[in-house]
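quick one
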Amino acid sequence: ATHFVIEGLKASIEDKEILKGINIEIKGGEVHAIMGPNGTGKSTLASALMGHPKYEVTEGTATLDGEDLMEMDTDERARAGLFLAMQYPSEIAGVTNSDFLRSAINARRGEGNEISLIKFIRQMEAKMKELDMNPEFAHRYLNEGFSGGEKKRNEILQMLMLDPKIVVLDEIDSGLDIDALKIVAAGVNSMRSEERGFLIITHYQRLLNYIKPDFVHVMMQGRIVKSGGPELAERLENEGYDWVKEELGIVD
Ligand code: ADP
Ligand code: MG
Ligand code: MG
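structure w/ adenosine-5'-diphosphate:
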């Protein structure tokens, strides 16, 4: 069964330490949410997990089924089953969405096990329909000129097609109106299974009304300072973050 363990993870940007020792354990079937004020390191965690070159991991491990992702390059992490939807997806001129998706799927499946073109197109069309995406987006350059909401749906399209073991979604709810949010949440919920774990990073509780987490973690100043169940997210929605700071004696 899927088992993802982040242990003592520290990361810096330009020699400034942002992540100060993150510990999270996710088992297949579980949905974990990370909430926290702006600037506390949530996206840094996502970027460090992906292996973004700007973020230097200085200590700690993140193992997926016993293999340390931090020892792998970004492609290998994806092949191992890690999927990340970034807060700000990149635009890639000259590469169409469908070309990008097909090579990502084939990289994940490995040499000698490539998906046939027919099967790929059929799957992509079905998933795009599920997400209420205009079919023309298959042939547009990756994220180029996509609206915020279109980029988010496109990230979810990639998730649906890549069959990852661990899904990390960084503010997938930002820029989505309520109808798009419901579509995205339905896509995520359709992927919930015993074989897969989720780490959902969000600033707002609203998303968690549609994707019910099993565990909620609060991140502040580069640390997980509090963990609980869904009721923790509701309290944060009603009362903000100040009570957590007071409880922990955090001054900012
Ligand atoms: P969050 O996602 O919780 O809002 P971030 O991880 O984006 O927080 O940012 C954490 C801290 O790291 C902030 O102080 C931010 O200014 C800094 N930071 C993030 N990305 C960069 C970057 N590329 N260059 C310099 N500083 C950065
Ligand atoms: Mg932010
Ligand atoms: Mg962020």
